[in-house]
Amino acid sequence: MSRIRTAVLISGRGSNMVALLRASQEPDYPADIQLVISNRPKAAGLERARELGVEAIAIDHKAFPDRESFEDALHGALVERGIEFVACAGFMRVLTPRFVTQWAGRLVNIHPSLLPKYKGLHTHRRALEAGDAQAGASVHWVVPEVDGGGVIAQAPVDIVEGDTQDSLAARVLERELTLYPDALAKAVSSLKS
Ligand code: GRF
Description:
Strand order of the largest sheet: 3-2-1-4-5-6-7
Largest sheet: 7 strands, mixed
Strand content: 15-25%
CATH architecture: 3-Layer(aba) Sandwich
Number of strands: 7
Number of helices: 6
Shape: globular
Bound molecules: 5-O-phosphono-beta-D-ribofuranosylamine
Structural class: alpha/beta
Mean pLDDT: 97
Helix content: 25-40%
CATH superfamily: Formyl transferase, N-terminal domain
CATH topology: Rossmann fold
Low-confidence stretches: none
Radius of gyration: 16 Å
């Protein structure tokens, strides 16, 4: 069965992206990751992707006058390479409804909370402040409402006594690195059936 040509969008260190690339190196993994794009030229993840043999480019959002023209460049780069599916992994730009509609059903994201709880930023701080017993991460379809799309898979992480934002974030990230490859496989396979 042919694998789905996939791109990963990042903005920073790219640990989720590396986990996805490693999964994609398995020949029977359903997503074939061909491209990594960062909106930040200095993102450490770009070099990590190249080290793993994957094309990695920067499309600097600051070089464009508005979100639409940035997204046109992004869309163009994806289409040019025959990309069929896009996974956001620590990509810190809100995508417009126009772009999201162009990629509807082919665009997923990982968010560090148990959605629908704590959409948006500072998720771990909010979970700690609320006295929650658990935090976690969710992989979800991207829809125009930020962090509002259907959940594909989630991983809960217990909050323990003395947890700080950093300690919790580190434990959640560790779970993300197995959650996202599994969830991407599931999402891409839904496209094939
Ligand atoms: C992850 O915690 C992800 O859930 C959030 O941003 C972080 C990205 O980390 N959206 P990395 O770039 O994958 O290391």
